[in-house]
Write a structure and sequence with these properties.
By secondary structure, this protein is α/β, with parallel strands linked by helices. It contains twelve helices and nine strands. Bound molecules: phosphoric acid mono(formamide)ester and norvaline.
């Protein structure tokens, strides 16, 4: 792995390797040498808001002995029309690794094409690979393996779903997506999922009845109905609510030890009830913690190749 735009580019072995490294960081395993990262610099270019991803990357880099520099869009000449490629070439002269949160993957690709350093997608309209990796870590910690797990995503077909879906299928899970038909995954997501399915024994179903789909689930996942940059917000909410809100009634159909996941930020009372997100089966704070360990693993692994 030289850069990270989408989980679709990773092999199952690479995903598991990242989880293994992140868990070593979590255990404070001193056998990992962090010398390569000492005094190196990470630039964080964020064109959308962030609480967890920004903070966990900054703290990860600091704890590894490096520095990070946060750059919102308005801090950069991009806001005055400077080209992505000129920004990429400039940053390559100064820093050692870049994480970008933006709208289109084409901008991240342009950055990669004009950089001599590793580039990480810290969320785009279609992908959130860092979140998927740390969420897979959480599932493995709770359930040991994804093989034959029943994972049910209830909600919008968004960036968080895409990479979590690709990772789950690559690792052998049976995945159900439950959403209003109009908000089903797009052609590109289905195409990638089908390619993954050709190579292993996972399954994928897309339906619109949450009560049915969730029966015997091991993992129930959702995300906000409205993502950053979404349009037609009221229309979208109307299509989802109240049917696709993850409630105790829905969770009661899943296995007793099913876990509830949400990458956060959440809107209690919209995509999930307060009882579920703050209940005993919820693992949201473990997800938050694992972002820190996974971001260390990402910085460390990409640094080994490039720096
Ligand atoms: N889960 C996640 O990416 O959160 P932030 O938007 O706060 O970074
Ligand atoms: N789907 C959400 C995830 C936020 C972390 C968004 O893109 O806004």
């Amino acid at each position: 792995m030289k850069n990270l735009i989408s989980i679709s580019e990773l092999q199952d072995k690479e995903i598991l390797q990242m989880v293994k490294i992140a868990r070593k960081f979590k255990k404070n395993d001193k056998s990992i040498s962090v010398n390569k990262v000492k005094n190196k610099s990470l630039a964080l270019i964020f064109q959308k808001p962030s609480t967890r991803t920004r903070l966990s990357f900054e703290i990860a880099m600091r704890e590894l002995g490096g520095n990070s520099i946060f750059l919102s869009e308005s801090d950069l000449q991009i806001s005055r029309g400077e080209l992505m490629k000129d920004t990429a070439k400039t940053l390559s002269e100064y820093v050692d690794i870049v994480a970008i949160r933006t709208y289109n993957n084409s901008d991240i690709q342009e950055f990669i094409d004009n950089s001599s350093i590793p580039i990480i997608n810290a969320l785009s309209n279609t992908n959130h690979p860092c979140q998927a990796l740390s969420d897979i870590q959480t599932v493995i910690e709770k359930k040991k393996s994804l093989r034959n797990l029943k994972i049910v995503w209830i909600g919008d077909s968004n960036n968080v779903l895409n990479d979590f879906l690709f990772a789950s299928l690559k690792l052998g899970a049976n995945f159900s997506i439950v959403c209003p038909k109009k908000y089903s995954p797009n052609k590109e997501t289905i195409k990638i999922a089908k390619e993954i399915l050709k190579e292993n024994k996972s399954t994928l179903s897309i339906t619109s009845d949450p009560m049915k789909a969730v029966i015997d689930a091991d993992v129930v996942v959702t995300d906000k109905i409205i993502s950053m940059g979404d349009k037609n917000k009221e229309l979208k909410k109307k299509a989802f609510l109240p049917k696709y809100r993850v409630t105790e009634k829905i969770m009661s159909k899943a296995k007793d030890d099913a876990i509830f996941m949400h990458c956060l930020p959440a809107v209690r009372g919209e995509e999930v009830s307060e009882q579920v997100i703050d209940g005993n089966n919820s693992v949201i704070w473990q997800q938050v913690e694992n972002k820190l360990h996974m971001h260390k693993a990402l910085i460390w692994s990409l640094s080994l190749i490039h720096i």
